[in-house]
Design goal:
alpha+beta, Translation Initiation Factor IF3, 2 domains, 4-stranded mixed beta sheet, 30% helix
Length: 158
C-alpha cells in the first residue's frame, strides 16, 4: 500500500497538532520488527497522529524506517526531527449504535437519611429509579410531570 501524500499546508497543520504529543511507540536496537509494525498500526487506529521514538544513531536508517512504516501502514510521514518520527493516518469511521434498540435501564440510587441525634449511624437505602422518576430532596421518589403548555402554544402547534 502506498503512503498517503500530504500537501505542505496539511503537513504543517499535522506538525502543529503533533507538537505536544509524547512518543507512543519506541523502536529499539532490533529495528523494525513485526511487533513494532503491529503496535504502530494499533496506535494509528486509536489516535490517528502519533510520534515514534527511534533509538538508532544512523539518520539514513531512521529515514528508511519512516518510509517503510508509512508504506506498510498506509500512513503519511509528517516529520522526522532527530530521533522522533511523526506519522498520520485518518481515523476509521466508528460504527454507530441504533438508538431504537437501546433504552436506558433503571438505575440504582442510594438514599442516605441521617439520624436526628449525632450519635447514631445514618440509614442507607438502595432504591431503583426508572427513567421517568427522580429522587426529591427529602429522599422521596417522584415521577416526572408532563410539562404544561399554554393554550396559545397548543393552538400554534396544532
Amino acid at each position: 500500500m502506498p503512503a498517503i501524500t500530504l500537501t505542505p499546508a496539511e503537513r504543517k497543520e499535522q506538525r502543529g497538532l503533533a507538537h505536544h504529543l509524547d512518543p507512543v511507540v519506541m523502536i529499539g536496537a532490533e529495528g523494525l520488527t513485526p511487533a513494532i509494525v503491529k503496535e504502530t498500526d494499533a496506535a494509528l487506529k486509536a489516535h490517528g497522529l502519533i510520534k515514534v521514538r527511534m533509538f538508532s544513531d544512523d539518520r539514513a536508517n531512521r529515514e528508511a524506517t519512516l518510509a517503510q512504516l508509512a508504506d506498510t501502514l498506509n500512513a503519511a510521514p509528517v516529520q522526522h526531527i532527530g530521533k522522533l518520527l511523526v506519522l498520520w493516518r485518518p481515523l476509521p469511521p466508528k460504527a454507530k449504535v441504533e438508538k431504537e434498540d437501546r433504552m436506558p435501564g433503571p438505575r440504582t440510587v442510594k438514599i442516605v437519611s441521617f439520624s436526628k441525634s449525632g450519635t447514631h449511624r445514618p440509614t442507607v437505602k438502595k432504591v431503583k429509579v426508572f427513567g421517568n422518576e427522580r429522587v426529591a430532596a427529602g429522599g422521596q421518589i417522584k415521577r416526572a410531570k408532563v410539562r404544561t403548555t399554554s393554550v396559545k402554544k397548543k393552538a400554534q402547534q396544532g
